[in-house]
Amino acid sequence: MYCIHCGKEIADDSNFCPHCGKYVATNGPVGTQQMSGNVYRSSVDDDNIGWGVLGFFFPIVGLILFLVWNRDYPKRARMCGKGALIAVIVYVAFILAIVLIAIFFVTLGIIASGGMMSVCV
Length: 121
Hints:
Blueprint: E1 33-36, E2 39-42, H1 49-57, H2 59-69, H3 74-112, H4 116-120
Antiparallel strand pairs: 1-2
């Protein structure tokens, strides 16, 4: 069975996770739905690459899911957060590359036209 808080594997008869120390409800077999307050949730926390892809293409959604799932589904939350972080880094690098290319071509145009004096006159 896996801890519903940290996602690490624990013994089937454990009441507490030896990794994070939190109480683990053992109401049913592994992978079944467990009752937590008034909300049913799956006891299986997967780190499927799909969550990272979702976070990459929709970084705001990835950030929101990271914040919401951080305690209950740490592996899913981590994948969403990684996808969102990678997306932001890629977007910033892309914008920076466009700005540098634009500056290069503007500078190249000024040099080809004879320098700043001919631009000002």
